[in-house]
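Q: What would this chain look like folded?
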Amino acid sequence: MRFISCGEALIDLVQQPGGDPAATPWLGRSAGGPVNSAIGLARLGLPVDMLARLGSDAFAGQLADYLSGNGVGLGLAPRVDAPTTLAVVAVDPAGHATYAFHFAGTSSFGWTAPELPAPRADTWLHLASIAWVVEPGAAVLRSWLEATAPGWAGVSYDVNVRPTVIADPARYWALVEPLLRAVGGAGGVIKASDEDLLFLARAGGAPAGGVEAIARDWQAHFGAAAVVVTLGADGALAVGPAGTVTRVPGCAVDTVDTVGAGDTFLAGFLQRYTADGDLPGALRRGVAAAALVCARQGADPPTAGEVDALLAAGS
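A: My prediction, written as structure tokens:
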């Protein structure tokens, strides 16, 4: 199975120790949820192409080098005359990251129909994050997905809510719901964190009973093959056909930060799920991959060997 990861490619700016108000040091990390997932898939030994708009500045060169250096194909990534999208990252003492985005006029959000490929029956399409909800490009991406979703080998969507981008849950839900409908209608996989589900549930209409009940409702309403929910240190759950719920526990690690955890989970999950459809095995592999990235600074996805070793140690 070949993969395409579609969405934004950006730079995370993380403040470093030292400096003063006149000259604060910052670390610029190649990032973006779909980029992290593409790197994760490639490090797990899977062929993957990046479908993202890359800009014309030095940061765009960094992103291109990072992706290609990790074996991610760039044949579907158009280069455009625009600056690279930036995210300023704050990490709290518990390692939890929050993001402030700077993207007016930047490369990630100006999609046009000719930049998007025809579906491929031998390729799994993964879509994620803010490129799918920020206009003007989001409307182009939604129309493309609705027209092509049934033509791919499979489709997955990581909701990856960013309230600092759209603070109103009702507005966010109005943009996400057509994507859930398209992915579910194609028998795809919907992935969200527990925080994503609870934020969107504030738009109204969510059932009582918490995260599991919301996931059950999504699966029944949209018809997805699986609605997968990450639960932080508590592992993950998935609701499959007929509302069957599968849960797996988390893997204990010393957390450095959570940057890229959900994106890396998705890579580990897809490696197993697309191979044999084993939902419990895919959840365990995703949780292990996410745990390993939490034990490192920044989004630094593990190799297949590292995931195998962690799973073996816990068996």
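The domain at 2-314 is CATH 3.40.1190.20 (UDP-N-acetylmuramoyl-L-alanine:D-glutamate ligase).
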